[in-house]
Amino acid sequence: MHRNLTLIGLLTLAPAAVLAQPTLTFPDNAPTPGNSYSVKYGPYQPAGSTGAGQTWDFGDLSTDSTSTVHVEAPNSVPGGAGFPNATAAVVAPDGTQILEANATGLFLLGGELFGQSAPFTDPAQHLAYPCTFQTSWEDAYGGTADFAGLPIELQGQVIGIADGYGTLALPEAVVTDVLRVHRTDILGIVTFLGTFELTTELVQFYKAGIDIPVLEISSLSGDLLGEPLLVQTLRWVDMSVVSVNELESRAIQFTVFPNPASDMVQVAYDLGDHALASVELMDLSGRAVRSFNGLGAGLGKQLLSLPVGDLATGSYFLRITNSQGAQGVRPLQIQ
Predict the structure, then answer these.
(1) 3-4/35-41 β-pairing
(2) What percent of the residues of the chain are helix, what percent strand, and what percent coil, each to the nearest 5?
(3) Which terminal Cβ of the chain has fewer Cβ within 10 Å, N or C?
(4) Residue 74's closest CA among 14, 11, 133, 31?
């Protein structure tokens, strides 16, 4: 079942002077299967200034259309089973991205390019973890694909930097402690007709603990078969769907450490007045590979120690459920 995380509960109205420098971390910002987000699309606008202590005012955005972005288990989407290291698939109206999140960053393993599958044998790094103001990275990537029966080669480079932080004003809410990430993606498409280059300038505004950008502004330009190409988009997470109480009652927050783990993993959680119902470890297809029983039903803050030393190396998800049926999910790496 999808949890609709429009995230008002994580957004607070605060004076601009009390700005913390945000940090994106694994696993808190890793896309997690089971999450879904209501998003709005509007007219393209410039992304605003860089630097510390910024205020980005997008409060007057108008809505052209609405949709939902789903974060799925990789094996549940077409072609996802071909990526054994994938941890999530982000499914949006403009295509699907197959992703791997680990302690070093977020990587694109494959996706859709002009409606066709485009796998990367050398993944593209979309984020570095941890990521804070002035964190930067560069990464070359590549792969092959088949377009209308014609083989092509994909050669690209990503240049990324977290170039600002501050407060983001959207039509539905003001979001504090936001990290702005600017990524330039230069993709060369090599065909028998020649090489075509596409450049994407992408600015994403992240809130720590939310696994997709709160606001994303993209400009794709280049030359394709002799025709100039320019595609500009702007989308943001709709903050008006769920109230604070609804969000807090549906999403259990907990911490898993160490992560990656090799022998034992600790799970720190607080279910308040509700009892613990179950703890399950799931593989990337969403199948429960282990259930931990007899863990007790204490209320309030609790710490569990779970043995994982006999599990195969790889990516998993830990899911806990309380007595009211609310759930929380966190990625877990076994090494």
Answers:
(1) parallel
(2) 5, 60, 35
(3) N
(4) 31
In a domain, 173, yes or no: yes
pLDDT at 249: 38
- Answer whether residue 95 shows pLDDT above 60: yes
pLDDT tens, 118-164? 788 899 999 999 999 999 999 999 988 777 677 889 899 999 999 99
Region 180-203: mean pLDDT is 91
Peptide bond before 31: cis, by omega within 30 degrees of 0?
Answer: no
> What pLDDT shows up at residue 332?
83
CA distances from 141 to 108, 119, 188, 204, 289 (A): 9, 11, 10, 20, 33
What is the rounded average pLDDT for all residues in the chain?
82
Rounded distance, CA 145 to CA 102, Å?
25
Question: Residue 113 is inside which H or E element, if any?
Answer: strand 105-113
Q: Are 304 and 328 in contact (CB under 8 A)?
A: no
> Which residues in 133-155 are b (16+ Cβ under 10 Å) and which e?
bebebebebbbebeeeeeebebb
173, two tokens = 């809410």
Letter for the amino acid at 165?
Y
- Give the list of residues 6+ apart from residue 192 with CB closer than 8 angstroms, or none: 150
Q: How many Å apart are CA 107 and CA 70, to the nearest integer? A: 18
Residues 159 and 295 both lie in one domain = no
Domain hosting 278: range is 252-334
Residue type, 182: H
H/E segment holding residue 248: helix 244-250
Express as a percent the part of the chain with pLDDT over 90: 35
**Same structural domain, 217 and 264:** no
Tokens at residue 202, please?
Answer: 């992408």
Indicate whether 230 and 299 sit together in one domain.
no
Q: What is the pTM of this model?
A: 0.71
